[in-house]
Write a structure and sequence with these properties.
The protein is an alpha+beta fold. The chain contains one helix and five strands. Strands 1, 2, 3, 4 and 5 form a five-stranded antiparallel β-sheet that branches.
């Protein structure tokens, strides 16, 4: 699930898209989850993340993401404000 912002023009390395994502993965039947704020192509710069590596999907990891979500939304707003249109 993504909350994405497409900027008219950005100060950041040619990317005009920044998103807050909550991502669930299924690698080898090991379900993992993470949440982050990341710039789109071509940079892919990571602005923030909840876990350094995707965490197992369980009550604790989902609760941690839920608890950190307000901070991630605030960070996304800061990133958007710091990259006004030229």
């Amino acid at each position: 699930m993504y909350l994405s912002c497409l900027l008219d023009k950005s100060e950041f390395e040619g990317s005009d898209n920044v998103a807050l994502g909550i991502l669930a993965y299924d690698w080898d039947n090991k379900f993992t989850i993470n949440a982050d704020i990341c710039w789109g192509h071509p940079s892919g710069k990571l602005e923030a993340e909840v876990f350094a590596e995707p965490a197992p999907v369980n009550k604790e990891s989902v609760a941690t993401i839920k608890d950190k979500l307000p901070d991630l939304v605030s960070k996304l707003r800061d990133v958007i404000r710091d990259n006004p249109p030229k």
